[in-house]
Amino acid sequence: MNDFLAALxxxxxxxxxxxxxxxxxxxLLNADRSERRAFAEEEERFLKNHSD
Length: 52
Prior knowledge:
Layout: H1 2-49
């Protein structure tokens, strides 16, 4: 049991950093996806209103 706790203690910081990295990347990708969607909608609206 003592070996298990020692191994867990060693791995826990790496797992925490990995989890934080995953959360940050997911937030960035979701923000990028939302921004691209909003830009495409605005571009479509602009082209619809300014077509000759």
